[in-house]
Specification:
The complex is a heterodimer. Chain A is mainly β. Chain A contains 1 helix and 19 strands. By secondary structure, chain B is mainly α. The chains are: A mainly beta, B mainly alpha.
Chain lengths: ~425, ~70
């Protein structure tokens, strides 16, 4: 399987031109008070023998604030992926362990996005959207968020909503084909080509709602509670992945339920330590969904000024989840550890029980102009570099009985933000 | 009283109690500092969250902006 880089669609180019024009209009028409250019790149690397995964995510966003009450933002982001993934997931009881041989993956996603924010004294409304395309996936989204301050700005409430209209490429299956006989998509060639007889398009609809409450309790303590809900409908499995279903080696395309309702509650606190000129932030999150997957997350961060223009952040994160109710590492054997889990089957390690641990750090330097602009151009400059290391511990997931090797990942970030 | 009713009562009580708290404007300098913001660098947080959540079965608790997949 080889997925070649996608060409940006005409609608994507039109959208990018439109938002760029809007930003330019904002500058010209208003003698802009501020223009912010944010550029950054994220580097993800998951080393493993035979299945290394590398992702570059560059992005650029331009924000114009022509008046105090209005800001308009337009941006672009890409995901440039190269690596390998297991095409057929076999369990430890399968007779053909070599069936898990990796398949190369190369793909590029381009995303154009834009938003505008209107501010009043204690309220703020943001409307935005995005359009993205990759070889085998298209996405169009809308989002809106309304925020208000109460009780002399000590309380902040925000209500947010996002809607996705996505389309995923799939192999053609006739309507009455039993899921156990469906074969996976072989590659992404001719996806979204109306004349391709062996390609189908499947919709995915996602609605997400969020309510957040931030509260200042003292001059040094602020807390936040965030409640999120999400509804998904459509093809929620990987069309390329197949799962071995019988000891004889028969496999079929991964088959997940078409609906999923998810909810999460996060609680956070930040406390400023005057003696250290720094802050500690702690957070916990609980999550559950209708696939009976439960998870808990604990985050701890400390950030401190070393110099007035330089601050360092250290962060740690522990994550633990149960498996989805239909998850099994082997659908060919017997219950309970191995064997069938009803009408659905999955080779997705993200639905297996596992825990992960993250440690990382970031250095951020920022400069603000006084009377004269920095280098005669900038009102402010900010640069940051960060590195996180992720460790995964899979309790059940194997590749034909072998423990996966790609259980460590590195996330590097680099950013430069300029205010003109 | 069910767990849900207890949780709702506790939430409403804490919210009403929050109205009694006042941090004076001259005391807000620390609260306005970037290191006291939960989403101080929203774009960095969104990018990191995207790659981390791509490898987990969970979602939520940070921001909802839409825009699928890039599921690598």
């Amino acid at each position: 399987m080889r997925r070649s880089p996608a060409k940006p669609s005409a609608r994507l180019v039109r959208l990018a031109l439109l938002v760029a024009l809007m930003s330019f209009w904002g500058i010209r028409a208003s003698y802009a008070q501020a223009v912010e250019l944010d550029t950054r790149v994220l580097f993800f690397h998951e080393p493993a023998k035979g299945s290394t995964m590398t992702v570059y995510t560059p992005s650029a966003d331009l924000t114009v604030r022509p008046w105090d009450f209005l800001s308009v933002s337009a941006g672009w982001e890409a995901d440039i992926v190269s690596g390998a993934s297991e095409r057929v997931k076999a369990g430890p009881l399968a007779r053909n362990p070599d069936i898990t041989s990796g398949a190369s993956v190369k793909d590029t996603r381009h995303m154009a996005r834009g938003s505008f924010t209107v501010k009043r004294e204690v309220t703020q409304l943001t409307i935005g959207g995005s359009d993205s395309v990759e070889n085998d996936y298209k996405s169009r989204s809308f989002n809106a968020a309304a925020k208000t301050d109460l009780f002399q700005h000590d309380t902040e409430l925000e209500l947010a909503y996002a809607r996705n209209w996505d389309t995923i490429c799939d192999a053609v299956h006739t309507a009455n084909t039993d899921p156990t006989l469906r074969q996976p998509l072989d590659d992404s060639s001719r996806c979204f080509d109306p004349s391709a007889a062996n390609r189908a398009e499947r919709p995915i609809r996602t609605d997400a709602f969020q309510l957040s409450w931030s509260q200042a309790w003292t001059p040094e303590l602020v807390t936040q509670a965030v409640l999120t809900g999400q509804l998904q409908n459509g093809l929620l499995s990987d069309p390329y992945r197949a799962v071995v279903l019988t000891a004889a080696g028969q496999f079929a395309q991964e088959h997940h339920p078409d609906n999923r309702a998810r909810e999460a509650l996060a609680l956070r606190a930040a406390y400023y330590l005057r003696s250290l000129k720094g802050a500690v932030r702690v957070g916990v999150r609980g999550y559950r969904d209708t696939w009976n997957l439960w998870s808990g997350t604990v985050e701890l961060e400390g950030e401190k000024y070393l110099l007035p223009w330089l601050r360092l952040r250290a962060s740690g994160r522990y994550y633990n989840q149960t498996g989805a109710m239909f998850w099994s590492d082997d659908y060919t054997g017997g219950e309970p550890v191995h064997g069938p889990r009803g009408q659905y089957w999955s080779g997705d390690r993200e639905l297996s029980p596992f825990s992960s641990f993250l440690v990382g750090g970031r250095a951020l330097a920022s400069w603000t102009a006084d009377e004269r602009r920095i280098a005669g151009i900038f009102q402010a400059l900010q640069a940051a570099v960060g590195l996180d290391v992720l460790f995964y511990a899979y309790r059940d997931f194997t590749l034909a009985g072998r423990a996966p090797e790609d259980t460590r990942a590195y996330i590097g970030t680099l950013s430069l933000t300029a205010l003109f | 009283m069910s767990i849900f009713e207890t949780a709702m009562l506790a939430t409403v009580s804490v919210f009403v109690g929050a109205g009694c708290v006042t941090v004076r404007p001259e005391q807000r300098a620390v609260l306005a500092d970037p290191i006291m913001q939960f989403q101080g660098d929203a774009r960095e947080a969104a990018q990191r969250q995207h790659v981390i959540e791509n490898r987990e079965g969970s979602f939520g608790g940070s921001s909802v902006k839409g825009g699928g997949c890039g599921c690598n």
